[in-house]
């Protein structure tokens, strides 16, 4: 990382910090209406970020991280409290904030395709925000070329974004977010789809670009490695700031101005649910759980936010239950000779795929069988997503053969491929698309309906329960967090009882507990006879897999 420019900006950054924070959120409440009431996404959250400061935000799914980013971007009004960002009270603003966002904010999304235009070159993508602000084309391109060179992606300037690997695209997205010199950069899980090496490159590029621009950074991530670029790390739970720490230092609990403190899970979930507070010397307070006492404990219910429990044997049968559409038999239970158990559902032989002169897959073989959880892993750009698309007939290979559900894909036209996928497979891609205006349960019912399957509410609820989503079954999808949406997409796919379940990076937005719950649900589906194929570098899914194939970039 370059040190010269940062050192020269030290006095200016200090002066800006003395002048006041770029982000100043005070006692923020944000309520989302739901049938019969409202959900509090933020519950008195307070956070300040100084000019030039880099803050990483952790927190479980549904804790309020996404809502916080939307508030900071001026896309979500507050129900109460105040949020001043780069000089604008965004929590109460009613006018058009597009021009303000275009000049003051930079946004780095988990999915670069959402912010990069495929019809433009890399150079013109980076220059776009400046051009929209009225900067002359040659000036904008010169600035953008300089930024690309400083972040080590200058050789990509003439390429289109479709030819980039995941890590390359994300670094280009970082350049595009910083080229216009914003005061605040918001990053939403920028490494969610990337392997460890590519993620570190993105973090370093983001830190260098933010420092060079003299901006402050708020980075939301489940990845603990994100702390490598942080001045400060905070954790959000239940819509409040719960902990804060300096990387490498001890975690400190945050006490709000009302005196509320959120206890660590290990303490909150132990004993009877009661905690003793002893005041020691020097004002120190020692907290310890009260031993469990059935007479005194108010409730034996499982604590809110606990990881989903492992599905029972009955749940395993229900999770993997096959389609109930006419002519499609139910799969049997594990250990009872399930029809098709162990048969090859998807096979690739000698598959080659190239984009121009860039070879992505070079003679790849893959054998995905019923009753197995199969993980394909590899660094970003190794061809994992391409392999899934070829296996499903969404792309044609340049060489090799592919069989799906007993059919040779080369023998089928586009309509035939679509019909085969509908009969055989359920797919969850990296960018999740759901029916936004209906609830979670209805999304599952719609998935069965479009396949001509009869309603099966009990099956759907079993799947939702296994993924920790049953309490959210009646909530509209538009009100879900990113991780909740991702689990809903997996539940929707499982609800159709497919022979083949294909998932591309399904834990990219999940906290550790949710990822473990997903792994259990996928193992249950495989135990019931489903062939489960996952592209992922997540160690939780790799550890749960029956088969692991490693891909290397071509």
Briefly, what is this?
With 554 residues, this protein is an alpha/beta fold. 31% of the residues lie in helices and 24% in strands.
Task: Describe the model.
The protein has 554 residues and is of the alpha/beta class. The chain has helices spanning 4-8, 10-19, 65-72, 98-104, 122-132, 137-150, 166-178, 196-213, 265-268, 313-319, 384-391, 414-424, 440-450, 457-466, 482-495, 512-527, 539-544; strands at 23-34, 37-49, 54-58, 80-85, 88-89, 105-108, 184-188, 216-220, 232-237, 240-245, 252-253, 275-279, 285-289, 344-355, 358-369, 373-377, 399-404, 407-408, 425-428, 500-504, 531-535, 547-550. Strand 17 (399-404) and strand 18 (407-408) form a beta hairpin. Helix 5 packs parallel to helix 7 (166-178), helix 10 (313-319) crosses helix 16 (512-527) and helix 13 packs parallel to helix 15 (482-495). It is globular, with a radius of gyration of 25 Å.
Task: Summarize this structure as a short list of keywords or feature phrases.
disordered N terminus; five-stranded parallel β-sheet; 554 residues; alpha/beta
**How large, in whole angstroms, is the Cα Rg?**
25 Å
Strand order of the largest sheet: 6-7-8-3-9-10-11
**How many angstroms does the end-to-end distance come to?**
29 Å
Average pLDDT, all residues: 84
Number of strands: 22
Q: Structural class of the secondary structure composition?
A: alpha/beta
């Amino acid at each position: 990382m370059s040190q010269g420019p940062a050192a020269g900006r030290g006095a200016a950054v200090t002066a800006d910090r003395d002048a006041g924070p770029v982000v100043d959120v005070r006692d923020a409440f944000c309520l989302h209406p739901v049938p019969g009431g409202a959900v509090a996404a933020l519950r008195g959250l307070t956070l300040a970020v100084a000019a030039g400061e880099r803050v990483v935000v952790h927190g479980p799914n549904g804790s309020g991280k996404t809502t916080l980013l939307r508030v900071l971007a001026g896309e979500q009004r507050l129900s109460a409290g105040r949020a001043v960002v780069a000089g604008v009270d965004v929590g109460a603003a009613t006018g058009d904030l597009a021009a303000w966002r275009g000049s003051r904010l930079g946004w780095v999304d988990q999915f670069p395709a959402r912010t990069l235009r495929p019809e433009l070159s890399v150079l013109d993508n980076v220059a776009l925000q400046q051009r929209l602000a009225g900067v002359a084309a040659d000036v904008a391109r010169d600035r953008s070329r300089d930024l690309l060179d400083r972040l080590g992606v200058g050789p990509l300037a003439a390429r289109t974004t479709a030819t980039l690997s995941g890590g390359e695209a994300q670094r280009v997205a970082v350049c595009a977010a910083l080229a216009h010199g914003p005061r605040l950069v918001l990053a939403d899980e920028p490494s969610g789809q990337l392997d460890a090496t590519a993620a570190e490159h993105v973090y370093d590029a983001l830190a260098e670009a933010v420092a060079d621009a003299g901006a402050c950074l708020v980075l939301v991530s489940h990845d603990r490695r994100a702390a490598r670029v942080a001045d400060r790390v905070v954790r959000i739970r239940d819509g409040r700031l719960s902990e804060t720490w300096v990387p490498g230092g001890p975690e400190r609990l945050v006490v709000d101005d009302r005196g509320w403190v959120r206890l660590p899970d290990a303490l909150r979930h132990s004993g009877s649910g009661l905690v003793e507070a002893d005041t020691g010397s020097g004002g120190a307070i020692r907290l310890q759980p009260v031993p469990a006492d059935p007479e005194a404990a108010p409730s034996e219910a499982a604590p809110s936010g606990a990881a989903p429990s492992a599905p029972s044997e009955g749940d395993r049968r229900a999770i993997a239950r096959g389609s109930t559409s006419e002519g499609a038999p139910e799969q049997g239970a594990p250990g009872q000779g399930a029809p098709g158990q162990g048969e090859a559902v998807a096979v690739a032989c000698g598959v080659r795929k190239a984009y121009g002169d860039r070879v992505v897959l070079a003679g790849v073989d893959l054998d995905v069988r019923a009753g197995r959880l199969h993980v394909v892993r590899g660094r970003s750009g190794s061809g994992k997503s391409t392999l899934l698309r070829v296996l499903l007939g969404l792309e044609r290979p340049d060489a090799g053969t592919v069989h799906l559900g007993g059919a040779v894909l080369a023998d089928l036209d586009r309509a035939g491929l679509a019909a085969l996928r509908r009969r055989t497979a359920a797919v969850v891609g990296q960018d999740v698309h759901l029916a936004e205006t209906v609830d979670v349960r209805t999304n599952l019912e719609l998935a069965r309906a479009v396949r001509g399957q009869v309603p099966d509410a009990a099956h759907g609820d079993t799947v939702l329960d296994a993924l920790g989503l049953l309490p959210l079954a009646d909530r509209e999808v538009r009100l879900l967090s990113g991780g909740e949406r991702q689990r809903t997409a997996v539940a929707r796919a499982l609800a159709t009882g497919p022979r083949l379940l294909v998932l591309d990076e399904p834990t990219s937005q999940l906290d550790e507990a949710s990822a473990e719950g997903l792994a259990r649900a996928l193992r249950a589906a495989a135990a019931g006879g489903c062939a489960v194929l996952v592209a992922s570098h997540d160690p939780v899914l790799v550890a749960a897999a029956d088969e692991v194939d490693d891909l290397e970039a071509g």
